[in-house]
Amino acid sequence: MNQLRLATRDRHVALERQLPLLDPALSRLNYQHCLGRSPGYFAPLEQALLAQPGWDQIGFAYADRPKAPRLRQDLLTFATLNDWLFAPALPCRLAA
Predict the structure, then answer these.
(1) What's the CA gap between 22 and 9, in Å, rounded?
(2) In a structure prediction context, what are the per-residue pLDDT tens digits for the chain, which is 96 residues long?
(3) Nearest 5°: CA angle at 36, between 30 and 38?
(4) Pairwise CA distance, residues 8 & 4, whole Å
(5) How far from 20 is each of 10, 53, 64, 91, CA to CA, in Å?
(6) Which of 2, 32, 68, 78 is close enough to 43 for a disulfide, judged by CB 3.0 to 4.6 Å?
(7) pTM for this structure?
């Protein structure tokens, strides 16, 4: 697991730099919109990853770590999930 973490660290850092989530000037509305887009990304990715064999062999309980359900729960603290999934699109600024 440490090998995977080290091998993908630079990619994770680059991705996090593109997201405005840690920008102190990020408005609550833009935060909610960016958060609202996350389950649509994570849910299919997690399904595809879970379908891959070998997680047990490397000692990684991937099925215990899904992000999409937790992101949906976070969205429910702001509004109903449908309100955000079907709301008019707002910009989710990505750094250049």
Answers:
(1) 18
(2) 678 788 888 988 887 777 787 788 888 778 888 888 787 778 888 888 888 888 888 888 888 888 888 888 888 777 655 565 555 555 556 554
(3) 110
(4) 6
(5) 18, 34, 27, 11
(6) 68
(7) 0.55
Q: Is the sign of the CA dihedral 80, 83, 86, 87 positive or negative?
A: negative
| 20/45 Cα distance (integer angstroms) | 21
Q: Report CA-CA distances (Å) from 40 to 1, 25, 37, 72.
A: 26, 25, 6, 10
Helical residues (DSSP H) of the chain, grouped into ranges = 2-18, 28-50, 68-78, 81-85
DSSP 3-state assignment of 13? helix
